[in-house]
Design goal:
By secondary structure, the chain is an alpha/beta fold. The chain has 4 helices and 6 strands. 23% of the residues lie in helices and 12% in strands.
Length: 203
């Protein structure tokens, strides 16, 4: 009498392989000592939270600064800054933790206005810095703006620094970005001011 060939189904084969792998993994795990008395059972410590309680950031500040790509050239303007904000969102950079869109030197005119306030360059920023800041904020991002600790900025054109007058930033100007906002950052690349000009860091 001929016996019929037995061919296990795919489900049985996969199930047997899975069981074998689980058994092997179980053998590889270290044995856990069982408590000799129920009173010895302790509750495991909870897993650490994603954000540490020490106030430190999980990542360094991540974002964009225009200086290395544009310096003071004409392409540094309102459209470029807004375009960077759009790219952050469209390309997933915002979701990856990139949140700062920073304006470097040359955003202001070389002279203050009659009230001693910094004035955004009307050619580069025809709608003012506040309009740019509002746009960046509308994307869920933060905006930063460069200033200097001395009487002039690092650029050879000699843009005014905050030490020259009582107004340290464009915060008092209707066209300026409020630096008191929690989503606006003043950027300073200067470490030591002198009596006449700032001592600029290497860029």
């Amino acid at each position: 009498m001929r016996h019929r060939c037995f061919r296990p189904s795919k489900r049985r084969v996969i199930g047997a392989l899975s069981a074998g792998l689980l058994a092997t993994a179980g053998l590889a795990l270290p044995a856990v000592a069982q408590p000799s008395h129920p009173a010895e059972v302790t509750t495991p410590a909870s897993a650490p939270s994603a954000a540490p309680g020490d106030g430190l950031a999980l990542t360094p500040p991540m974002g964009f600064n225009n200086w290395n790509s544009t310096h003071c050239r004409a392409e540094f303007n309102e459209a470029m800054v807004k375009g960077i904000a759009d790219i952050f969102v469209a390309k997933g950079l915002k979701d990856a933790g990139y949140q700062y869109v920073n304006l470097d030197d040359c955003w202001a005119l070389p002279q203050r206005d009659a009230d001693g306030k910094l004035v955004p360059d009307p050619v580069r920023f025809p709608n003012g810095i506040k309009a740019v800041a509002d746009y960046v904020h509308s994307k869920g991002l933060k905006i930063g703006i460069y200033t200097s600790a001395g009487t002039k900025t690092c650029n050879t054109a000699g843009f005014p620094g905050p030490s020259a007058m009582r107004s340290p930033t464009p915060s008092s100007s209707p066209t300026g970005a409020s630096t008191t906002s929690s989503t606006t950052t003043a950027i300073t690349r200067v470490s030591t001011p002198s009596s006449a000009t700032a001592t600029c860091a290497t860029r």
